[in-house]
Amino acid sequence: MAEYEQMLAANEEWARDFAGQLPVAPKRKVAVVACMDSRMPLFPLLGLAVGDAHVIRNAGGVVTDDTIRSLTISQHLLGTREIVLVHHTDCGLQKTDDESFADLVEQATGVRPPWPARAFTDADDDVRESIRLLQESPFLLSKDVCGTVYDVATGRLHRVA
Ligand SMILES: [Zn+2]
């Protein structure tokens, strides 16, 4: 069975016990920016309930123009004021570099991506870089940022100083 068919079936179960509609603004006024890694279920991992937080995910959980776009909408239109960054150990973006990745895509497709993969070697360092990029953004109302790294081997999160 295709994955989407299993997902549509799972949704039947979900909708059967659906708790009802919630306000669009996140209850806890927080936005989480995290890697798309399949081993990080952000809601249980951070003690969040449905309706509590925005979760913005991309490869690496890096701060890109689109991350800033989402955070700006989150803060200006939907009232969030805290930002929590979640990188993690054993990230796919630690297994390449921007040049090698662009080479790989160009060799396979004939087109070199105009955007960088945003690879990194040290997750803590990249969290610090993400915090710096957020602090530099002129669009955010609040720059109350907490940076963390999740250990996929232990399930523990540590705060990046
Ligand atoms: Zn990752």
TrEMBL record:
Keywords: Metal-binding, Zinc. GO terms for molecular function: carbonate dehydratase activity; zinc ion binding. It is an enzyme of class 4 (lyase). Zn(2+) binds at residues 35, 37, 88, 91. SUPFAM superfamilies: beta-carbonic anhydrase, cab. Binds 1 zinc ion per subunit. Catalyzes the reversible hydration of carbon dioxide to form bicarbonate. Belongs to the beta-class carbonic anhydrase family. This is carbonic anhydrase. It comes from Geodermatophilus telluris.
